[in-house]
Hints:
alpha+beta
Amino acid sequence: MSQHVYKQIELTGSSETSIEDAVQRAITKASETVHDLRWFEVTETRGHIENGRVAHWQVTLKVGFTLD
């Protein structure tokens, strides 16, 4: 079994659609410049309300990736 060392960063994604979409948007964008993403943990979920309805979701997550 190989041993890894991980670095952890914090991201915040947003979406008008869903919490899951906000998470996916954050991970997709991060993967453009950060390689070897391995795990994530949702640490905070927020939303914006307009006219009595959820206008968009905002999700903060920790993302771990392996170091070279």
